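User: Could you go from structure to sequence for me? I need the amino acid at each position, not a summary. Structure tokens:
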């Protein structure tokens, strides 16, 4: 009989790789050290496979095709970020069985044999998996391109996967990659909701996973925590367990949490009072309008095509005309491409005018990051 031998969750912030000057390196190092402790959990439990639930920052999937859940079932898991690449082997037998049986469990799954994954998978590959010879099964959970799955639906996915694992021979570890509070690409980027993070950590430490699973995606959006959706399959797979907090770092833009769940341990104290949401009449991450497709397409293409980035930095007006953008969007792009020269600038703020025009916040932020990196390269 198969068995889930370890359950864990971690953040995956790109700043862990890029080390920007506005971040405290001690906080980044503390998070990495905690992730390496999760690697030690793999040494202790000796799983035959590691299932990783993670998200996408408009790296793997774009508006051409947006799955709710996807299993990566190729020969190897290919991840690219910050000039580095990773390619751990995929446990194909387990991946294929999960894919087929989830469909039989009434989950309409997407799959890919050659998807290129981003930093939400790269971070656990780097600091949790490390150089260990443990095959993986990457599973994508949509967290930024609504409509999003509810925490309950994600938990149901995790329970179904636990049933599939139980019917197989492998010992399996499961890991969630994502969270906690942050608002990439929005005006709240440097205003994380640490109060929610503290409440959520306390509830999960006491085994009250229902407190989190009862939340709506709108509530998660309000507190900058749609990236915690990949935690829900882990919670669904293991049920109510004590969560051990290995590290929590309230960084300038993001709550960095690394945790481990302990099977067999009963929940602790009574549930805390419900978190008080403000129920804002808006959402930070919404379904992108078709009217802004051309702008989003240009920003997406610029992340992968260096020649296009160079042309944008030289003559963004011509590029905008080529993509069929209206004059107001071209004018905004001109302003955005006038990056500041100091090394301590906060590039997230430069995405704001693009977001106001309908650009997806995460896509706009990542595009601005890449354009600024290209500009710095040209200056050197």
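Assistant: Here is the amino acid at each position, in order:
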């Amino acid at each position: 009989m198969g068995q889930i031998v370890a359950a864990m969750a971690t953040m995956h912030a790109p700043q862990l790789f890029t080390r920007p000057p506005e971040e405290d390196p001690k906080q980044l190092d503390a998070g990495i050290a905690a992730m390496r402790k999760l690697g030690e959990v793999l040494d202790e439990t000796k799983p035959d496979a590691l299932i990783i639930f993670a998200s996408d920052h408009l790296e793997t999937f774009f508006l051409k095709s947006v799955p709710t859940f996807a299993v990566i079932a190729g020969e190897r898991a290919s991840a690219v970020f910050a000039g580095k690449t990773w390619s751990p082997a995929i446990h194909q037998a387990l991946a294929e069985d999960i894919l087929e049986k989830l469909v039989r469990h009434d989950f309409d799954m997407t799959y890919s044999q050659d998807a290129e994954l981003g930093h939400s998978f790269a971070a656990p590959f780097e600091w949790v998996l490390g150089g260990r010879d443990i095959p993986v099964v990457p599973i994508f959970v949509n967290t930024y391109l609504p409509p999003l799955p509810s925490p309950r639906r994600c938990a149901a996915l995790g329970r179904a996967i636990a049933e599939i694992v139980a019917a197989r021979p492998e010992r399996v570890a499961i890991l969630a990659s994502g969270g906690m509070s942050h608002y990439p690409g929005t005006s709240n980027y440097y205003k994380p909701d640490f109060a929610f993070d503290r409440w959520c950590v306390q509830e999960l430490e006491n085994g009250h996973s229902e407190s989190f699973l009862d939340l709506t995606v709108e509530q998660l959006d309000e507190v900058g925590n749609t990236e915690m959706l990949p935690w829900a399959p882990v919670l669904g797979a293991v049920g109510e367990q004590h969560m051990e907090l290995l590290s929590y770092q309230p960084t300038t833009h993001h709550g960095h949490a690394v945790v481990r769940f302990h099977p067999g341990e009963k929940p602790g104290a009574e549930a805390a009072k419900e978190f008080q949401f403000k129920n804002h009449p808006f959402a930070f991450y919404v379904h992108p309008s078709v009217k802004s497709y051309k702008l989003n397409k240009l920003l997406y293409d610029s992340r992968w095509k260096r020649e296009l980035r160079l042309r944008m930095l030289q003559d963004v007006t011509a590029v905008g005309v080529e993509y069929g953008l209206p004059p107001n969007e071209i004018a905004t792009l001109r302003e955005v491409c006038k990056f500041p020269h100091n090394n301590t600038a906060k590039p997230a703020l430069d995405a704001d005018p693009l977001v106001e025009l309908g650009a997806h916040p995460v896509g706009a932020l990542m595009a601005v990051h890449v354009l600024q990196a290209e500009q710095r390269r040209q200056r050197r």
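One structural detail worth keeping in mind: Residues 25-45 form the longest helix (21 residues).
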